[in-house]
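Chapter summary example.
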Amino acid sequence: MPTPLALALALVAAALALPGGPPVGMDYLAYDPATNQVWIPAGNTGNVDVLDVATGKLTSIGGLATAPSRKPDRPRMGPSSATVGDGVVWIGNRGDDTLRAFDAKTLAAKGVVQLKSMPDGLAYVKSRREVWVTTPRDETITIASVGATPAGLATIKLDGEPEGYAVDAARGVFYTNLENKDKTLAIDVTTHKVLASWPAGCGAEGPRGLALDAARRWLFVACTDGAGVFDLAHAGKELGRLKTGAGVDNLDYDPRRRLLFIASGRDGDMVIAHVDDAGAPQKTATVATAKGARNPVLDARGTAYVEDALDGRLLVVEPGP
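The structure predicted for these 321 residues follows.
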């Protein structure tokens, strides 16, 4: 386990410029441990950029659809989310409301699924060979069968706007938040029934991203100014809460070292917190990033990749040994 001194040495090791920017609109990144690659849906550029972690090589898959943003001061919408399947990476595109599949090794296009609503977050549910898509405009989860014999689309109607996702593969449970209701839900992946719900405790701005420690049954819920930790073995009992700067969206967690990574876009920094034996997060280090930088994703070594959309870069944060 890293000591506080080791974590204090966390630093931004590199800033990788992305093609077509700045800015480069980014939302949900994904890391593929099988290929050691970070997949970067790059919004307004119409690209999906793929970073080989071992070599630092960046390869762009171009030509994906873009469309004007709903807000006039925002870049065009395009590829915005990714999830890793069985040898395939799925990309959600807000430019044309599609899911597009790419071979995880060759990066070749493998197929497309047309959605009925704009995708937000994506999660691959291995046991079902399905991609679960949060579709907040319709207050639904959209489920795409991506097995050998696709069965089309299904939806789960919710009583609010889903935001964030986490999957407990062993127990067959999908977690999401209702951003406009300040609630967290647990949904059975087979029956599609809501198994449980509890207050997220984030207040009027609502909860955002999720991360899971499946072995310890801890669920981490991002608020716009921090995160809460909930005990899934005891009906979502709150175990602890961490306050950070503002502008938090998604977060990520390293279960091996019990480290939580939360980037504050408004403050331009990222908090690294250690989660103790009781599930309470304790701030251990704060790393300077950039204004607007958010949504860290971790690789197998625990290195964090943080989106810097305004400057069109990916920041690489090494948290020490």
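To summarize the output: The helical segments are 4-8.
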